[in-house]
Amino acid sequence: MGIWQRGGLIPIHPMVARRDWAERLATLTKDLGDLLISRSLARAAGDLGAVATAAGLRADESWKYQSGRPLQDALGMYRADVVVSSGVPRFLEFNFGTCLNGIASTSLLQQTFLSGISVLPETTVQGRQPPTVLDARAAWAKRSLKPGQRCGVVGFAAEGDEGSLRVFDADVQALRKAGVPSDFVPAKNAVITDAGLEHEGRVYHGVLRYFLLGSRYETARPGFAEALESAPNVRLLGASSYEIFTSKLLLADLCCDQGLSRAERDLVSHIPWTARAIDTRVPRRGSRVEPLVWAEQNRELAVLKPGRGAGSRGVLIGAFTPENAWRQALDRAANEGDWVIQEQVPGDRMPVAYLDSNSDDVRTVDQPALLGPFVVDGAYAGCYTRHTTAEAADGFLRADRKEFSNCLLAV
113 and 166 share a domain? Predict the structure, then answer.
């Protein structure tokens, strides 16, 4: 499989969960995602620009939400990051958009394990799983486009990067299987016209964005993302306002929201306490604390995160940060104003066997896993999982870590 073209760690069996637990995870993911969106809008009286400001977007990023594109085209797909602690799912963050880690690997692994390679009894899993996330996204695209409209999977493929090309091909094949005419459209060669998006003589009225805003790949086509956002006659799945709701600042606001009903508070209890890194008192477990003071006094329990960071970049775990460096980081967070403090939760160990393709050794890791349940167009669409072989509790943040992806199947 091309996603492992450079070698790496390949799981040899899926992670499994009881069906009732997996269904609970799916329900929590959808309900919390919906609540994050609805409460963010409610606090801003429905003003998307005000939500963007609260999320930390700058004035020069207003094009990301002023195009008038339907909010569903930006938020119709998301993945949560979840740690299981004492058997309970704890939601660390939400990532919106159509270009998310785990889409291709989860789909390919789910298909592979259900095709007979899995060690699980066939009757236990076959026919009882959600569609793969690739198939769910293709079905969403079909519902969003008019019959016969062509959809371009738009992304940046590095020269000679067979893995990325296979990922794009998997998307195209899923769309075609769903009855949507589709092709991979290299972003560096696409042309935006009054008719739509054009490439090699074909016009696309649907676009599935497969690149992150602000990624290093965008340097190959400066200004393309902004131009695509305002392109006429194009339905853009993965519209740029997805960036607003991915901000962890909004998750902090939800966690500290005093306008929640009892049922909503029960939902939010699945989020580890999260607050903006400020010196103003906010609620915490029936009392009120200043987040910066709490983080300084409880360094071993605190995690400091950039409000708009991704991929663990900039994240500091207090327990693994020297005291002086921690104080300096808190001072910087206070000055910059767009950081959050989150209470660290211990993850349950989840043993999984994998093949090290560099050595052909089969090994077992017994470490906490990061789960990534997907929701596409309002429905659960499978679950990505990520393990690290690092022994330390901060394994996912270590530069020398080895990690591998897997999928979660319900039994």
Answer: no
